[in-house]
Amino acid sequence: MTMKIAILQFPGSNCERETILAVKRAGMEPHEFLWNQPKELLQAFQGFVIVGGFSYEDRGRAGMLAATDPVMTVLKEQSAQGKPILGICNGAQILVESGLVPGLENHALGMTLTDNIRMQQGKVMGTGYYNAWINMRVSDQFQLNAFTKYLTPKDILEVPVAHAEGRFVIPPALLQELQNNGQCVFQYCDKSGNITPEFPINPNGSMLNIAAVSNKAGNVMAMMPHPERTKNGDAIFQSMRDYIKTNAQNLVQPLYYAPRDAEISNYEKPSHTFECIVELNITDNQALSLNQAMERLGFEANLKRYIHWEISCDSELTFEKIKMSDVLYNARKESIVKTPVSGFLVRAKDDMLGKQKLQMLQHHYQIPGIDSIRHGILWSSTNLSHFTNANILFNPYAHDCYYY
Questions:
Q1: How confident is the model at residue 332 (pLDDT cuts 50, 70, 90)?
Q2: Burial, 123: exposed, middle or buried (Cβ in 10 Å; 0-12, 13-18, 19+)?
Q3: Per-residue pLDDT reduced to its tens digit, 132-152
């Protein structure tokens, strides 16, 4: 039996070679499949792997733009037939943003893969991109699914991670349902298999050390580590092979958890704070890409992006010193907006960027009198009504959004 596996790539994908080799080692037949090929051709494949990399340069947020691509509509249809789909790293982000994982009714967005936070003894040791070898294993209540046939909690897999937005954040009620079903399939661990939340055992601050999540049927899995880059991960692809060989497709059913609509409140500037709104003087590729995504969904958005800073400090003189430091913007390609702007203000719930800028101004530039700095993205559009539930501008599990 020939098992044809589509190795799905988007602009910016970069792990196709390693994935092809891993699929071949498992005795399957890999075929590179680009996002702009006729999507109907996907129906001829027995399984799919969405490779890692940086699709669309992670514009907006990692995986979001690829998740709106028409090819994902076909993958949703194929997943409903029980065919296996593995998303690795950026592929995992695409599966989460498309709603294929964890698999809510109508593929609703239910969770997020957001910015890394490296925590040790309650302190933030670092944020952003992290590249290292880690250990992982299936969880004690793991789901026996399309990717776990040859694994037990005693099998410790040493594989690489290489990502900036790999932290699983899941609402408590949904997390409980996932645990009950064994859908939190893999967890980061030490060499002995102990699940410890501290960095470097947990490389990104992911809740419960979660490294991979599946849908309820177990035929779709989003995994942040890279099992394709080492033979240590071959058991995952061998399980996928046997799942296809035995035609062991399970009935794909949605989870019980029903997400609420995102709450969007009016922005109110706190007292004793100053605002600084910055715009690019050069082409804004982020805004261009999001406009293209909205056009694919049938909307004309005319989005424009601004950077919003909210600074709490002791005086206007201190505020002027902060602006002159060039920490908040680059005067060679950005400028401060002086006319009023309205739209959506999106902020990361953890706002590590704001905290980093505060530390830089306090310690490197030694500017006294600064209490806090909040960073956000202000999106302006000719028709804001398109965005209240589109999940284009923000992921409600990673961001707060305000009418500005």
A1: very high
A2: exposed
A3: 999 999 999 999 999 999 999
User: Average pLDDT for residues 378-398, to the nearest whole number?
Assistant: 82
Q: Which residue among 226, 308, 375, 386 is the active-site one?
A: 226
Distance in angstroms (rounded) separating the CA atoms of residues 331 and 324: 9
Spot the catalytic one: 228, 310, 313, 399. 228
**Percent of the chain having pLDDT more than 70?**
98
Q: What per-residue confidence (pLDDT) applies to 251?
A: 73
Q: How far lies 167's CA from each of 64, 128, 130, 284, 331, in Å?
A: 15, 11, 12, 27, 33
Angular region, 132: left φ>0, alpha ψ -120 to 50, beta rest:
beta
pTM above threshold 0.85: yes
Active site residue 158: no
**What secondary structure, in 3-state letters, does the chain show?**
CCCEEEEEECCCECCHHHHHHHHHHCCCEEEEEECCCCHHHHHHCCEEEECCECHHHHCCCCCHHHHCCCHHHHHHHHHHCCCCEEEECHHHHHHHHHCCCCCCHHHCCCCEEECCEEEECCEEEEECCEEEEEEEEECCCCCCCCCCCCCCCCCCEEEEEEECCCEEECCHHHHHHHHHHCCCCEEEECCCCCCCCCCCCCCCCCHHHEEEEECCCCCEEEECCCHHHCHHHHHHHHHHHHHHHCCCCCCCCCCCCCCCCCCEEECCCCCCEEEEEEEECCCCHHHHHHHHHHHHCCCCCCCEEEEEEEEEECCHHHHHHHHHCCCCCCCCCEEECCCCCCCEEEEECCCHHHHHHHHHHHHHCCCCCEEEEEEEEEEECCCHHHHCCCCCCCCCCCEEEEEC
* Residue 177 among the catalytic residues: no
Residue 226 is a catalytic residue: yes
Q: What are phi and psi of 228, to 5 degrees?
A: -75, -15
Q: Which of 15, 16, 18, 89 is flagged as catalytic?
A: 89
CB 275 within 8 A of CB 378: no
pLDDT for 388 equals 65
Give me the mean pLDDT over the 23-33 stretch: 98
How many angstroms separate the CA atoms of 245 and 237, rounded?
A: 12
